[in-house]
UniProtKB/TrEMBL annotation:
Similarity remark: Belongs to the class-II aminoacyl-tRNA synthetase family.
Protein name listed in UniProt: phenylalanine--tRNA ligase
Organism: Daphoenositta chrysoptera
PANTHER family reported for this sequence: PHENYLALANINE--TRNA LIGASE, MITOCHONDRIAL, PHENYLALANYL-TRNA SYNTHETASE
GO cellular component: mitochondrial matrix
Localization per Swiss-Prot or TrEMBL: Mitochondrion matrix
Catalytic activity: tRNA(Phe) + L-phenylalanine + ATP = L-phenylalanyl-tRNA(Phe) + AMP + diphosphate + H(+)
GO terms of biological process kind: phenylalanyl-tRNA aminoacylation
Sample GO molecular function, one term: tRNA binding
Family matches, as Pfam families: FDX-ACB, tRNA-synt_2d
Span of domain FDX-ACB: 154-246
SUPFAM superfamilies: Anticodon-binding domain of PheRS, Class II aaRS and biotin synthetases
N-terminal signal peptide: none
Length: 247
């Protein structure tokens, strides 16, 4: 740490001293202060990168068994101070046991699930262990910077209806049909998937069959409600996409 400093013979990493609230017995005060500064600078930049510029940060002294001195980092998020991680200068005995007796290190720990809960407004940590594709697919995006807001999962049962039609002879795009379904069905559309594709051996016409999953976030849907929406999707597909219904 001090090897490149001219006339720095008096600056050392280690000494034989006493443990205080500010340092371990084997560290010099100069070394600890520089390591602590580096630790806080890096972690502040990490949180600023995650939460954005202008983030207010404060450090709270605390105790951890593997670091000394130790700190908790708090950020001001939505008007409240919130603890996001713990960190500190590593106990030198641990560093020595790793074969790095001539170095000083720092460590930190943060809960990735907790940060994700904050960023995406996820109410229950148990959702991270779920295999429910309604949860998992919400976080699939074209790039890592895409803005995502968690949509609560409905506890109410789904209703599933299929729709089949012959494709028009001109250009047809599946994405156009997906957009049409969501435009007509709105928030009641949970999922649309291509279930089957069939080419007639004589006419060469191509047919698609899609499965549409309907689910209301706050109540149980009736089949009559879904039937009306499904019929409107059929009519819109014929009118706007030029398909030939097999309804």
């Amino acid at each position: 740490l001090f090897s490149s400093i001219k006339d720095g013979e008096g600056l050392q990493l280690f000494e034989q001293g006493h443990r205080t609230a500010h340092k371990q017995e084997c560290h010099t005060m100069e070394a600890v202060r520089l390591v602590e500064f580096n630790l806080k600078q890096v972690l502040t930049k990490l949180m600023t990168h995650i939460f954005g510029d202008g983030l207010q940060v404060r450090w709270v002294d605390c105790y951890f068994p593997f670091t000394h001195p130790s700190f908790e980092m708090e950020i001001n998020f939505q008007g409240e101070w919130m603890e996001v991680l713990g960190c500190g200068v590593m106990e030198q005995q641990l560093v020595n046991s790793a074969g790095a007796q001539d170095k000083i290190g720092w460590a930190f720990g943060l809960g990735l699930e907790r940060l994700a809960m904050i960023l995406y407004d996820i109410p229950d940590i148990r959702l991270f262990w779920s295999e429910d594709e309604r949860f998992l697919k919400q976080f699939i995006g074209p790039h890592i910077w895409q803005k995502i807001k968690f949509q609560p999962l409905s506890r109410y049962p789904p209703l599933i209806n299929d729709i089949s039609f012959w494709l028009p002879s001109e250009t047809y795009s599946q994405n156009d049909f997906y957009d049409l379904v969501r435009t007509v069905g709105g928030d009641l559309i949970e999922k649309v998937v291509l279930l089957d594709e069939f080419a007639h051996p004589k006419t060469k016409k191509v047919s698609h069959c899609y499965r549409i999953t309907y689910r209301h976030p706050e109540r149980t849907l009736t089949q009559d409600e879904v039937h009306r929406i499904h019929q409107a999707i059929e009519e819109s597909a014929v009118r706007e996409l030029g398909v030939e219904g097999r309804f």
